[in-house]
Amino acid sequence: MRMLYILLIALIAPVLVGCGGGGGGSSDNDEATVALTVPTGTTITDGSGNELSEAPTVTIKSADSFTPSMESDSFVAAATCEPAGAVFSNAVTLTFHLAAAVESGASLALFQSNASNSWNEVSDYTLNVSADRLTLTVEVSSFSAYEDYVILVVPT
To answer: What gap in Å lies between CA 95 and CA 82, rounded to an integer?
Structure first.
């Protein structure tokens, strides 16, 4: 089964998985979408190094779907990433297509949920903003063990 999964990844990657629709939050980006790109040849393991057969997925989330809740003035975009705790041999890319542009000059940061229902800033990631400020790309090498990532405007 492992070899079949690795072979499938090698043949069909980069995998592009997208989900749309926010839902009811107060953010201007409730209609944002997110897609996941997994580079060719990437292997996916759990935190113990065991290969996973589950294909990774991402789903967009709205500001009001979180506990603790997000402040609407700092919320930009968020996604649930599964399988929780997945580790990738090559960085994967989350691409957020926003309904409203991020303000020029805004400082952005990536946070992940943790066991105590609070947020930790991710230390190892690359976040890029398109020239029109409507597309954000984030490269990560693993998914949070608690599934959720959120991009916020942070004070400079």
So the answer is: 15
Residues of the chain with pLDDT under 50: 1-27
- The structure's pTM equals 0.75
pLDDT of residue 72: 64
According to the 3-state scheme, what is the secondary structure of the chain? CHHHHHHHHHHHCCEEEEECCCCCCCCCCCCCEEEEEECCCCCEECCCCCECCCCCEEEECCHHHCCCCCCCCCEEEEEEEECCCCEEEEEEEEEEECCCCCCCCCEEEEEEECCCCCEEECCCCEEEECCCCCEEEEEEEECCCCCEEEEEEECC
Q: Where are the domains of the chain?
A: 2-154
92 neighbors 45 (Cβ within 8 angstroms): no
Contact between 59 and 79 under an 8 Å Cβ cutoff? The reply is yes
Domain made up of 2-154: CATH architecture: Sandwich (2.60)
